[in-house]
Write a structure and sequence with these properties.
This protein has about 210 residues and is mainly α. Helix content is about 60%, strand content about 5%. The chain contains eleven helices and three strands, in the order βααββααααααααα. The chain has a three-stranded antiparallel sheet. α5 packs across α7 and α9 packs across α10. The longest helix is centred in the middle third of the chain and has 30 residues. The radius of gyration is 29 Å and the shape is elongated.
Length: about 210
Amino acid sequence: MDKNNKKPEYWSKSTLLSRGWTEKTIDELLPPPKLKDNPHYKCASPMQLWEQKVVKQKERTKKFKESAEKKAKRRESSLKAVATKTENTMSLLDTFSLEVERVSIEELREWTLNAKWNWYMDTEQYERADSVDFADEETILRWEINFIRHNLSNYDEELDKLYGKVGKDIVYSKYRSQLMERIFEVYPELKVKCNEVDNNTDVKDITA
């Protein structure tokens, strides 16, 4: 095919933005886009497309280069800020309490079942409340671990410190794992029960 008759190729706005364009430079430097029906969603707004040849020409202009450089610097600054905030959040992990109160296994089961029954009653889930006494061992084990976490440790108080923090999901995951290890140290019976309930059941499934 003659190069002069080659079919023009186009880029979408998302591609332009990834190349350093901004909404402002698109409006100022490029001609109106070619509109094309969205091939994936017929009811969606038409796709906006710009000819690659025209885009590349404009990318060689001084105005685009200056704008792209400013955008890159803003992004770099933003990434540094996020990294700093994440690091600050991560530092909280060393301050979180891993203290777990020990009670007898008999008390733990009694308190756990009572708490579960009361919660179902308070939330008007009466049929589920009636079924508490007939729960299987795996379910009770999961309830017991949750009871320890929320009532016999500082779990909830520590998580409150993560509210609105950048990187909180990473810290939450690490803290949860550390606390679970501590719970199994204080209550080794529960770790044994995790294996007794079902050899095919992953401890992570029970403690989730």
